[in-house]
Amino acid sequence: MARAGDKQRLETLEAEFSGLEEDAFLAGPDRDAGDLDIDAIFATPWRDVFQDLAWDVGLAAAPDKVVQAWLQGLLAGDGRLPDRPGIAGIAFCEAREAGTGDPLGIVAVDITGPEPVLAGSYTGAQLGVSDAHRGRGIAARLVMERFLLFGTLPTWDLDTPAYSPGGEAAHLAGFRLLEEELALLRTIRLPVMEL
């Protein structure tokens, strides 16, 4: 059974992902995988990832209640992505820049408690998951959803594509999720658009 957005997801995957190998996914198409730089120095603490996101969405120094209201707005709006099996209690949403409304990336929101809690984020080149939410596959799903949103990874535009070891692992896990998504979408009968 087709899900909302499947046709667009399939088109993005066929155009931008199909045929990529792991190294090309990390470095970027038409880039030399030997240029990849994997080093722990590229790891970013969650608090810094959160602060960058808060600045970009206009919530810098905002009280917790304002952040929760923003998260509730994401969950209720059209930026919430279709639920997928695998990570119970986590919703994935598009994050947009304050003022312009331009897409920034993807956030993961824990919806298991009375108030939503930011669980992870992949905006700009910053990928992070809160300490309390690590080990659940959230980073891999953030990579997958960010790729589906933009059709690229932010590291493809860097002079030297660079990842922390954890970032590399998350991107490779995201690569495998994209492979699974593409295989699944190829088997679903999608409605044909009439001209």
Question: Any overview of this molecule?
Answer:
There is one protein chain. With 195 residues, the protein is of the alpha+beta class. The protein has one domain (44-187). The chain has six helices and six strands, in the order ααβααββββαβα. It has helices spanning 6-17, 22-27, 46-56, 64-76, 138-150, 165-187; strands at residues 37-38, 90-96, 103-110, 117-123, 126-129, 162-163. Helix 5 (138-150) packs across helix 6 (165-187). The longest helix is centred in the last third of the chain and has 23 residues, at 165-187. The protein is globular. The two termini are 23 Å apart. The mean pLDDT is 89.
Q: Topology of this protein?
A:
Blueprint: H1 6-17, H2 22-27, E1 37-38, H3 46-56, H4 64-76, E2 90-96, E3 103-110, E4 117-123, E5 126-129, H5 138-150, E6 162-163, H6 165-187
Parallel strand pairs: 1-6
Antiparallel strand pairs: 2-3, 3-4, 4-5
Protein name: N-acetyltransferase domain-containing protein
Organism: Defluviimonas salinarum
InterPro entries: Acyl_CoA_acyltransferase
